[in-house]
Each structure stands twice: as structure tokens, then as C-alpha cells.
Design goal:
Elements (H helix, E strand, L loop, with lengths): L17 H20 L5 H12 L5 H14 L3 H22 L4 H18 L8 H13 L7 H12 L4
Amino acid sequence: MVERSGIIDPHGGFRKLKSYQSAEIVYDATVVFCNRLIDPRSRTLDQMVQAARSGRQNNLAAAKRTMREFSQANSDPEAIADLMIYAVECGNRFTLNCGDIDEEFYDGLIDIYAAAIKKILQLPKDARSTYRRRLEKIMESSDGIGWGFHDDLGNLFSRAFPEE
């Protein structure tokens, strides 16, 4: 009989591992994201779901590329802002579930957050409130995350929405 090292339970214990749970969250979020915002006939949808399943190309660069392609194909600032906010929500949730990542990751999320604010400010005032609340929720939930992430989000938010 082969002796087990005890790292992974031979009867499905891998489901208790933080890395497995994180990968599952990323996969589920990717599927929801794709179903909400990507044309079901698009090759991009299939590529993103396959990448999430395999754990490859599931990174901020891929998310930015997808947002850029979506923005080029869609001129609706609300849809673009929604996608950007969703990406930051996913990144923020990932950090809250898994712990601090690295400065480059947070800088990328901050850039997306700033771009989302810029899109939202192009909308009529009466159309901004839902997006503003989502941005505020991200900013508030980021308290305690490293690399100055929370401070940067707070500064961006307060400059964009000083009247609130």
C-alpha cells in the first residue's frame, strides 16, 4: 500500500483547500460574467470559460483585454462601466477571500476603477446612482487591503462624487 503524505485527502479533501475554493470562485464568476456580457456566439466566451476551467490566462491582463475589446465593440457607456465595475468587484472579492495579492494587481484594479468612474461621470446624473453605490461598496469593503488600495479607491471616489 502506498503511504499518503496527508496533504490531500484521497476522498475529495481537495475541496477544502483554499486554492481549490478560490479557483472555483474564479471559474463561477467567469461563467456569470461571460453569460451576462459576452455574445453567446463569440469565440471569446468559449476561450474565457475554458481558460477559467484550466486556470490559465485567468488574470488581470486578460480581463483588461476583454474590457478593451468590449469597449471597442460597444459604445454604451453604461454597459462599459458595468463591465469595469464588475471586474473590480471580482478582483476585490478575490482579495477578500484569498488575501493580499501584489502591487501590480492592485494598480491594475485601481486603473479599472478610475476608468469606470470616468464612464459613469459621462452618464446623466439620474443614471449614476446604482453605479456610484457599487463603487462605494467596493471602496468600503477594501478597507484593510494592502498596498494603499483602499486609500487610492477612497481618493478616486471622493474626488468623483464630492457632493455625496
